[in-house]
Each structure stands twice: as C-alpha cells, then as structure tokens.
Amino acid sequence: AMSISRYFSTQSDNMPRRKTPTVDAEENPRPQSSEANMVASTVSEGMDPALREVIREVTANLTKVIEEKLGPVSLLLQTHGKYLEDHETRIKEIETRLSAIEDDLVPSIDKLESLGKRVKDLTERADDLENRGRRKNIRIVGLPEKAEGNDPTHFFETWLPELLHIKTKTGRLKIDRAHRTPNQVPSSEPRPRPVLVRLHNFQDKQRIMNAAFQLGRNNRPLKHGSATVMIFQDFSAAVVRKRKSFDYVKKLLRAIGADYRHIYPALLKITYNGSTKVYKDASEVKD
C-alpha cells in the first residue's frame, strides 16, 4: 500500500512541468473574476483523479467533524434564541400593561391629591373652630391639689383678681366653671393636675392673660403659698404641639435678652435690637 505523502511525492515527480505564462502588467493589470474561475476550472480538470478523490474525502471528513462539533452549539443558540424571543414578547406585554396601569392611576393620583388638600383644609377649619370654642378658657398649672376647696368656681372668682392685681367692681370675676383635668387624680403623678377655667366674658380672659404676661416680664412669679403657678391660654392639641416646637428657640431668646410673644394660633413674634419679626416655624429663626 502506498501512503498519501508518498503518493503525492511520486505524482509530483512524474507530472510534467507547466510553463507559467508571462502576463504583461500593462496589457492586463487587473484580471476579472470570470477569468480566475476559468483558470481554476482548468487546473481542476488537469488534476489527477486519485488526488481529487483524496481532496473530496478530506473535505467530507472535515465537514462531518465541524458539523459534529458545531451541531450542539447551533442547537443551543437556537434554544437561547427562542428563549430571548419569548422574553422579549413577555417584556413587551408587561410594558403594555404597565402603561395601561399608569394611565389608570393618573386620575386616581390627582383625586388623592385633591382629597388630601380637602382633608387638610377641613382639619384646619375644625381646629380653628375648636380653638374659637376655647377662647374664653385659661389653663392654670402648678396650683396644689385641693387648694380650690369644694367650690372651685367661687375660689377662682376671687383668687384670680387678687393674684394678678386686677381691679373689679365687685372684687370678683364672673366664671362659668372651673375643674381639674383629668377629673381623677393619677396615682403615679406627683405633680398637681392643671385647672381649666372658663370665663364668662372674653374681655376678662384677656385681662388675666395680659396681667400674667406683665408680671412674668417683670420677673414677678405667681405664687400660691410656696408653689409657683403659671397661667396659659387653652388651645387645641395641634396648636399646643406647634407652640411647643418653639421651646428651644425661646430658651435661646431668653439667654440673649430678646423679647418674644406668641401670636394666635402658633406664631412667634420676636423683638431684638429694635427689630421685630414674626415667624411661622422654629426653623425660620436664624442665629
């Protein structure tokens, strides 16, 4: 048996030498593709049949090997391609649904915003009405328990003018009612409960608040025996929280000697170095 390398070597020695035609570069500088195909066909026709068979077998074997190796890869690529197409379809469906949901939500969001504003307005109106109902009330803090005796209304009618040096025709202020809040004494609370007093006339309530303010401004604390007493206006819980947010600012204002006063419902009026300003929020007050 003759090996392929020996066969090619023998054929190469026995084949006649072909003369390579000389082509003038100027006459045919760029051969056309059809001419190249004709040359290849001529070479193939002149090739030995056994050589052509070897080349055919080698080509077939290479093709088979490539197909065996690339077949699974091609199948995998086709599978992933199908997955990608499915995902693309599902993503488009999701985008379509999300767009529809967003379109449906826009009116709902606008309605919620409108309702939120409406609730805020109604809450502020209700709070204002509550505070108007409290406009004749004062809250007394620090008065010892049972100091008012069994008739708190009668006690405060005479005690308040005496405490605040308020002149009246009869020596007393007209009070509708007075009571402790809460009604029952907490067992765990050592401090006395605040007293809620409702004046009959709003003008008398204003006289009480002005007198208490002036005494406090002159560093003359209100006393009942050895206990220090403070008098405040009676406000709703929302206004009390808002005013309480100024506590730290008021502490700083006292340290620098600035004058301040609350304005209804929860504004803070500050006078310092001849300048007066009104603030709605504690964060607005600059150093």
From TrEMBL:
Q: Where is the composition biased (Polar residues)?
A: 1-14, 30-39
Task: Map out region (Disordered) in residue numbers.
Answer: 1-39
Presence of keyword Coiled coil: yes
Gene3D superfamilies for this protein: L1 transposable element, RRM domain (3.30.70.1820)
Residues in coiled coil: 84-139
Key words, A-Z: Coiled coil
Q: Does the keyword Coiled coil apply?
A: yes
Name the InterPro entries on file: Transposase_22 (IPR004244)
What's the protein called, per UniProt?
A: L1 transposable element RRM domain-containing protein
